[in-house]
Amino acid sequence: MKEIEPDREEIDSLYEKLNRDAEAGGYHLNPDIEVTKELVKGLIINKTRYGYEACPCRLASGIKEGDLDIICPCDYRDPDLSEYDTCYCSLYVSNEVVQRKKSAKPIPERRPTEEERKVKKDRVKDQTTLTTLTYPVWRCRVCGYLCARNEPPGTCPVCKAKKERFERFI
Question: Where are the alpha helices (DSSP H) in 62-148?
Answer without folding.
Answer: 64-67, 77-84, 95-98, 114-126
